[in-house]
Amino acid sequence: MGWVESLQHAIDYMEVHMEEPVTIEEIAKEANSSIFHFQRTFAILTDCSVAEYLRRRRLTLAAQELSATDQKIIDIAYKYGYDTPEAFSKAFRRQHGVTPSDARKNLGELQSYNRLAIQVNLKGADPMKYRIVEKESFQAIGVKREFSLQGGENLSGIPDMWMEMNQDGTSDAIAKLQSGEINGLLGICANFEDGTTMDYWIAAESAQAVPEGFKQIEIPASKWGVFEVHGAMPDAMPKVWKQIFSEWFPSNQYENAGTAELEVYPAGDAYSEEYVSEIWIPLKRKQ
């Protein structure tokens, strides 16, 4: 089963279990994927976390039942995972802009999030610039933080980490350590094999001694797909990630090797439309 079919299989599993508590571990297992790679792929292709998708779909189904049945509001709340009417009402209003009571009376408009169907484009309208690189293992020096893979903590925590490091000068200090082939600051996703947490590094390739306050990581030897990213941050990077998963992987003989992934941010104005950055993905031949 290909990764597109696996992802759709996991979505179908979520739909069948909308009225039951399901974990990200169970969902990722249906896709034959690690939690990290399933969450990442899902978010890249849908612009939505797994938890947010479940919440939106459950509140969509709840609104449909409020409009079409006489079932008690409290029973519908419990059915879709809310322990109290207050929690259900708050979440319902946030999505739909009306209360459950208003929906029951058909007052106001409702927001419907429909069941997802994953589609891929085997021929992209926009050309992708990439190269295949064989690189021996190398050292990177920087700052590491551990993030939970539960509830999308990694998706929200990593941008906050970058903001903090840029503001307090840590990013500049790391950039001065760069002495390897890869020119720029590295955002490294690593150590996500256990399925519950991941490490994220802001680092630079460097063979220097590790200064006080910093740590070192070894990136294993790999065949890399290196994709050019043209445009201003933060929008340009997610756009190319989406192209990679929706266009490049389905039409190539490679798949993600499952080891550390890199985003490379060279010196320059990252908010300029002329800025050029890179995504490095470890590759292996499809089975």
UniProtKB/TrEMBL annotation:
Q: Which residues form the HTH araC/xylS-type domain?
A: 8-106
Keyword Transcription assigned: yes
Gene3D superfamilies per UniProt: Homeodomain-like, Regulatory factor, effector binding domain
Q: Could you confirm whether the keyword Transcription regulation appears in this record?
A: yes
Name of the protein this chain belongs to:
Effector binding domain-containing protein
Highest taxon listed in the record's lineage: Bacteria
SUPFAM superfamilies to which the protein is assigned, alphabetical = Homeodomain-like, Probable bacterial effector-binding domain
What Pfam families is this protein classified in?
A: Cass2 (PF14526), HTH_18 (PF12833)
Q: Which UniProt keywords apply?
A: DNA-binding, Transcription, Transcription regulation
